[in-house]
Write a structure and sequence with these properties.
This protein has helices at about 5-25, 30-45, 90-100, 145-165, 170-185, 230-240, and strands at about 50-60, 60-70, 75-80, 105-110, 120-125, 190-200, 200-215, 215-220, 245-250, 260-264. The strands form 2 sheets. Strands 1-2-3-4-5 form a 5-stranded mixed beta sheet, with helices on both faces. A 5-stranded mixed beta sheet has the order 6-7-8-9-10, with helices on both faces. The protein is elongated, with a radius of gyration of 22 Å. The chain has 2 domains: about 5-125, Trna Endonuclease, Chain: A, domain 1 (3-Layer(aba) Sandwich), CATH 3.40.1350; about 145-264, no CATH class. A hairpin with a 2-residue loop joins strand 6 and strand 7 (about 200-215). With about 260 residues, the chain is α+β, with helices and mostly antiparallel strands.
Length: about 260
Protein backbone atom coordinates (compact mmCIF):
# COMPACT_ATOMS: atom_id res chain seq x y z
CA UNK A 1 0.00 0.00 0.00
CA UNK A 2 1.49 3.34 -1.06
CA UNK A 3 2.18 5.94 1.60
CA UNK A 4 0.14 9.14 1.54
CA UNK A 5 1.98 12.35 0.71
CA UNK A 6 2.92 14.14 3.95
CA UNK A 7 0.94 11.56 5.92
CA UNK A 8 2.26 12.54 9.36
CA UNK A 9 1.81 16.26 8.71
CA UNK A 10 -1.73 15.92 7.40
CA UNK A 11 -2.61 13.64 10.34
CA UNK A 12 -1.52 16.37 12.77
CA UNK A 13 -3.35 19.04 10.75
CA UNK A 14 -6.57 17.01 10.83
CA UNK A 15 -6.24 16.73 14.59
CA UNK A 16 -6.15 20.53 14.82
CA UNK A 17 -9.13 20.82 12.46
CA UNK A 18 -11.26 18.47 14.54
CA UNK A 19 -10.26 20.26 17.73
CA UNK A 20 -11.23 23.64 16.24
CA UNK A 21 -14.60 22.25 15.14
CA UNK A 22 -15.21 20.72 18.56
CA UNK A 23 -14.31 23.93 20.37
CA UNK A 24 -16.01 26.49 18.10
CA UNK A 25 -18.88 24.47 16.67
CA UNK A 26 -20.26 24.80 13.14
CA UNK A 27 -21.52 27.73 11.04
CA UNK A 28 -19.26 30.58 12.17
CA UNK A 29 -17.72 32.91 9.56
CA UNK A 30 -14.68 31.36 7.87
CA UNK A 31 -12.32 33.96 9.34
CA UNK A 32 -12.84 32.60 12.87
CA UNK A 33 -11.90 29.08 11.81
CA UNK A 34 -8.93 30.39 9.83
CA UNK A 35 -7.48 32.19 12.84
CA UNK A 36 -8.21 29.32 15.22
CA UNK A 37 -6.47 26.84 12.91
CA UNK A 38 -3.44 29.13 12.68
CA UNK A 39 -3.26 29.22 16.49
CA UNK A 40 -3.62 25.44 16.72
CA UNK A 41 -0.96 24.78 14.10
CA UNK A 42 1.44 27.20 15.76
CA UNK A 43 0.98 25.35 19.05
CA UNK A 44 2.05 22.17 17.24
CA UNK A 45 5.14 23.85 15.81
CA UNK A 46 3.73 23.81 12.27
CA UNK A 47 4.52 26.85 10.14
CA UNK A 48 1.56 28.43 8.35
CA UNK A 49 0.62 31.68 6.65
CA UNK A 50 -2.94 32.93 6.31
CA UNK A 51 -4.02 34.70 3.12
CA UNK A 52 -0.78 33.99 1.27
CA UNK A 53 -0.96 35.79 -2.08
CA UNK A 54 -0.39 34.14 -5.45
CA UNK A 55 -0.63 35.58 -8.92
CA UNK A 56 -2.94 33.92 -11.43
CA UNK A 57 -1.72 33.65 -15.02
CA UNK A 58 -3.38 32.90 -18.33
CA UNK A 59 -1.17 32.38 -21.38
CA UNK A 60 1.75 33.72 -19.34
CA UNK A 61 -0.05 36.98 -18.56
CA UNK A 62 -1.19 37.92 -15.09
CA UNK A 63 -4.97 38.07 -14.82
CA UNK A 64 -5.45 38.36 -11.07
CA UNK A 65 -4.51 37.20 -7.60
CA UNK A 66 -5.57 34.39 -5.32
CA UNK A 67 -5.20 34.27 -1.53
CA UNK A 68 -4.73 30.86 0.10
CA UNK A 69 -6.76 30.37 3.27
CA UNK A 70 -3.83 28.62 4.97
CA UNK A 71 -0.41 27.94 3.42
CA UNK A 72 1.27 25.27 5.53
CA UNK A 73 4.93 24.29 5.76
CA UNK A 74 5.97 26.23 2.66
CA UNK A 75 3.46 24.60 0.35
CA UNK A 76 3.38 21.04 1.57
CA UNK A 77 -0.33 21.55 2.31
CA UNK A 78 -2.94 24.23 1.60
CA UNK A 79 -6.29 24.43 3.36
CA UNK A 80 -9.44 25.58 1.58
CA UNK A 81 -12.07 26.46 4.18
CA UNK A 82 -15.81 26.21 3.62
CA UNK A 83 -18.91 26.80 5.72
CA UNK A 84 -21.60 24.93 3.81
CA UNK A 85 -24.09 22.10 4.35
CA UNK A 86 -21.64 19.71 2.71
CA UNK A 87 -18.53 19.53 0.54
CA UNK A 88 -19.60 19.73 -3.09
CA UNK A 89 -17.83 18.67 -6.30
CA UNK A 90 -17.45 22.40 -7.02
CA UNK A 91 -15.43 22.85 -3.82
CA UNK A 92 -13.12 20.03 -4.87
CA UNK A 93 -12.76 21.51 -8.35
CA UNK A 94 -11.90 24.88 -6.83
CA UNK A 95 -9.20 23.27 -4.70
CA UNK A 96 -7.69 21.70 -7.82
CA UNK A 97 -7.62 25.16 -9.41
CA UNK A 98 -5.72 26.45 -6.39
CA UNK A 99 -3.25 23.57 -6.53
CA UNK A 100 -2.49 24.55 -10.11
CA UNK A 101 -1.84 28.17 -9.10
CA UNK A 102 0.18 27.45 -5.94
CA UNK A 103 1.88 24.19 -6.96
CA UNK A 104 1.33 22.93 -3.42
CA UNK A 105 1.66 19.21 -2.75
CA UNK A 106 -1.73 18.59 -1.15
CA UNK A 107 -4.97 20.52 -0.73
CA UNK A 108 -7.43 19.76 2.04
CA UNK A 109 -10.98 21.05 1.64
CA UNK A 110 -12.41 21.57 5.13
CA UNK A 111 -16.09 22.20 5.79
CA UNK A 112 -17.18 23.70 9.11
CA UNK A 113 -20.83 24.03 8.09
CA UNK A 114 -22.02 20.61 9.22
CA UNK A 115 -22.57 19.00 12.62
CA UNK A 116 -19.50 16.84 12.05
CA UNK A 117 -16.33 18.19 10.47
CA UNK A 118 -15.94 17.23 6.81
CA UNK A 119 -12.62 17.15 4.99
CA UNK A 120 -11.40 15.97 1.60
CA UNK A 121 -7.74 15.39 0.80
CA UNK A 122 -6.61 16.18 -2.77
CA UNK A 123 -3.02 15.45 -3.81
CA UNK A 124 -1.53 17.52 -6.62
CA UNK A 125 -1.78 15.00 -9.45
CA UNK A 126 -1.81 17.88 -11.95
CA UNK A 127 1.99 17.77 -12.13
CA UNK A 128 1.87 14.35 -13.75
CA UNK A 129 -1.07 14.95 -16.07
CA UNK A 130 -0.78 16.98 -19.25
CA UNK A 131 -4.37 17.45 -20.37
CA UNK A 132 -5.10 19.04 -23.73
CA UNK A 133 -8.08 21.19 -24.53
CA UNK A 134 -10.28 19.68 -27.21
CA UNK A 135 -13.25 21.37 -28.81
CA UNK A 136 -16.04 20.34 -31.15
CA UNK A 137 -18.37 22.91 -32.64
CA UNK A 138 -21.81 22.98 -31.08
CA UNK A 139 -24.87 22.35 -33.26
CA UNK A 140 -26.32 25.59 -34.58
CA UNK A 141 -29.40 26.75 -32.69
CA UNK A 142 -32.12 28.18 -34.91
CA UNK A 143 -32.39 31.53 -33.12
CA UNK A 144 -28.64 32.27 -33.04
CA UNK A 145 -28.18 35.35 -35.25
CA UNK A 146 -24.40 34.81 -35.49
CA UNK A 147 -23.85 31.03 -35.38
CA UNK A 148 -20.18 30.98 -36.42
CA UNK A 149 -19.17 33.78 -34.07
CA UNK A 150 -21.24 32.26 -31.26
CA UNK A 151 -19.39 28.97 -31.67
CA UNK A 152 -16.09 30.82 -31.55
CA UNK A 153 -17.09 32.50 -28.30
CA UNK A 154 -18.21 29.20 -26.82
CA UNK A 155 -14.79 27.79 -27.63
CA UNK A 156 -13.03 30.81 -26.13
CA UNK A 157 -14.94 30.59 -22.85
CA UNK A 158 -14.60 26.82 -22.57
CA UNK A 159 -10.85 27.08 -23.13
CA UNK A 160 -10.53 29.70 -20.38
CA UNK A 161 -12.53 27.52 -17.99
CA UNK A 162 -10.45 24.48 -18.92
CA UNK A 163 -7.19 26.29 -18.22
CA UNK A 164 -8.16 28.13 -15.02
CA UNK A 165 -10.92 26.03 -13.48
CA UNK A 166 -13.53 27.47 -11.08
CA UNK A 167 -12.95 29.43 -7.90
CA UNK A 168 -11.61 32.84 -8.92
CA UNK A 169 -13.16 36.31 -9.09
CA UNK A 170 -15.14 37.67 -12.05
CA UNK A 171 -12.31 39.88 -13.25
CA UNK A 172 -9.87 36.98 -13.53
CA UNK A 173 -12.07 35.26 -16.08
CA UNK A 174 -12.88 38.50 -17.87
CA UNK A 175 -9.20 39.33 -18.34
CA UNK A 176 -8.39 35.79 -19.44
CA UNK A 177 -11.30 35.85 -21.90
CA UNK A 178 -10.02 39.06 -23.48
CA UNK A 179 -6.56 37.52 -23.81
CA UNK A 180 -8.08 34.50 -25.53
CA UNK A 181 -10.12 36.73 -27.84
CA UNK A 182 -6.87 38.38 -28.89
CA UNK A 183 -5.33 34.95 -29.41
CA UNK A 184 -8.23 33.98 -31.68
CA UNK A 185 -8.02 37.28 -33.61
CA UNK A 186 -11.49 38.34 -32.55
CA UNK A 187 -12.08 42.06 -32.21
CA UNK A 188 -13.64 43.22 -28.97
CA UNK A 189 -14.39 46.29 -26.90
CA UNK A 190 -14.35 46.25 -23.13
CA UNK A 191 -17.36 48.21 -21.91
CA UNK A 192 -17.03 49.53 -18.38
CA UNK A 193 -20.19 51.63 -18.46
CA UNK A 194 -23.53 51.64 -20.29
CA UNK A 195 -26.22 54.30 -20.60
CA UNK A 196 -29.56 53.87 -18.84
CA UNK A 197 -32.30 55.08 -21.16
CA UNK A 198 -36.00 55.65 -20.56
CA UNK A 199 -38.36 56.84 -23.31
CA UNK A 200 -35.45 58.11 -25.35
CA UNK A 201 -33.86 59.99 -22.45
CA UNK A 202 -30.55 59.01 -20.90
CA UNK A 203 -31.16 59.15 -17.17
CA UNK A 204 -27.80 57.87 -16.02
CA UNK A 205 -24.80 55.63 -16.58
CA UNK A 206 -24.31 52.17 -15.05
CA UNK A 207 -21.13 50.17 -14.40
CA UNK A 208 -21.41 47.03 -16.51
CA UNK A 209 -18.03 45.31 -17.21
CA UNK A 210 -19.14 43.67 -20.48
CA UNK A 211 -17.24 42.56 -23.58
CA UNK A 212 -18.65 43.50 -26.99
CA UNK A 213 -17.26 41.05 -29.55
CA UNK A 214 -17.03 41.99 -33.23
CA UNK A 215 -19.63 44.71 -32.53
CA UNK A 216 -22.25 41.94 -32.55
CA UNK A 217 -22.37 39.87 -29.36
CA UNK A 218 -22.41 41.22 -25.82
CA UNK A 219 -20.56 38.83 -23.50
CA UNK A 220 -20.90 38.82 -19.71
CA UNK A 221 -18.27 36.80 -17.84
CA UNK A 222 -19.32 36.01 -14.28
CA UNK A 223 -18.40 33.75 -11.37
CA UNK A 224 -21.56 33.05 -9.38
CA UNK A 225 -23.23 30.11 -7.66
CA UNK A 226 -25.76 29.78 -10.45
CA UNK A 227 -27.12 31.73 -13.38
CA UNK A 228 -30.61 33.05 -12.72
CA UNK A 229 -33.37 34.91 -14.51
CA UNK A 230 -32.40 38.23 -12.92
CA UNK A 231 -28.97 38.11 -14.57
CA UNK A 232 -30.58 37.34 -17.92
CA UNK A 233 -33.00 40.24 -17.48
CA UNK A 234 -30.11 42.58 -16.63
CA UNK A 235 -28.21 41.63 -19.78
CA UNK A 236 -31.38 41.98 -21.84
CA UNK A 237 -31.79 45.55 -20.58
CA UNK A 238 -28.14 46.33 -21.36
CA UNK A 239 -28.62 44.98 -24.88
CA UNK A 240 -31.54 47.35 -25.41
CA UNK A 241 -29.68 50.38 -24.09
CA UNK A 242 -26.56 49.62 -26.13
CA UNK A 243 -28.46 48.90 -29.34
CA UNK A 244 -27.63 45.20 -29.70
CA UNK A 245 -29.82 42.12 -29.90
CA UNK A 246 -27.75 39.09 -28.85
CA UNK A 247 -25.82 38.34 -25.68
CA UNK A 248 -24.07 35.50 -23.89
CA UNK A 249 -23.52 34.93 -20.18
CA UNK A 250 -20.65 32.65 -19.16
CA UNK A 251 -20.49 31.46 -15.55
CA UNK A 252 -17.02 30.14 -14.72
CA UNK A 253 -17.72 29.21 -11.08
CA UNK A 254 -18.93 25.72 -11.92
CA UNK A 255 -17.39 22.29 -12.43
CA UNK A 256 -18.43 22.63 -16.08
CA UNK A 257 -18.84 26.01 -17.75
CA UNK A 258 -22.41 27.34 -17.67
CA UNK A 259 -23.48 29.42 -20.65
CA UNK A 260 -26.79 30.90 -21.70
CA UNK A 261 -27.98 33.13 -24.52
CA UNK A 262 -30.06 36.29 -24.26
CA UNK A 263 -31.93 37.51 -27.34
CA UNK A 264 -34.17 40.53 -27.88
Amino acid sequence: MSKLIHEDLTYTIRGVLFDVHNQLGPMLPEAFYQQAIAVGLDAKGIHCITERQFEVYYRNRQVGRYYVDLWIEHGKVILELKVAPQILPLHQAQALSYLKVTDADVAIVVNFGAKVLQDERLPNFLRQKVARFEWEKRPVVADWPYPELTNQLLEVCHRVHFELGPGFLHQVYRRATMIELQQQNLKYEYLKKAPIIYQGHQIGVQDVRLILVEDKILLATVAVKTLDEVMKAQLKARLKHLGHSFGLIANFNSTTLEMTTVII
